[in-house]
Write a structure and sequence with these properties.
This protein is mainly α. It is built from 4 helices and no strands. The two termini are 17 Å apart.
């Protein structure tokens, strides 16, 4: 479980470093593209957790998706409140999603390991 979350965070760090490296040269990442790449990074560890778990997995998936949506909305609201007029309106939702991905996978992993222990 810890390795999965570490892999998620490492992938997000790579996305952030690429964005920071291009920023001085005037390149701002397309928020839709960064979001798509982040989804691709997150699918692998989450799918491995899901496929390795025993059959009662619906509660874990539902809890992971609820955590993902809740954290995304909270962080998006905080970013939009803190920076009311960003250059790109998708920055708030992207920041919320980037913060929420490790949380969603952590909740998924926690529920799946809890189901294994029971």
């Amino acid at each position: 479980m810890v390795a999965t979350i570490a892999l998620e965070l490492a992938g997000l760090a790579v996305c952030g470093l690429i964005a920071l490296a291009g920023w001085p040269f005037g390149w701002r990442p397309d928020t839709d593209l960064v979001g798509f790449v982040t989804v691709l990074i997150a699918i692998g560890p989450a799918a491995e957790l899901y496929s390795g778990a025993p059959p009662p997995r619906r509660l874990a998936v539902a809890a992971g998706l609820v955590a993902l949506a809740t954290v995304t909305l909270l962080v998006t609201a905080a970013v939009n409140w803190a920076f009311p007029t960003p250059a790109d309106p998708g920055v708030g939702i992207l920041a919320g999603y980037l913060v929420a991905l490790p949380v969603g996978v952590a909740v998924l992993a926690w529920f799946l390991t809890r189901a294994n222990a029971a």
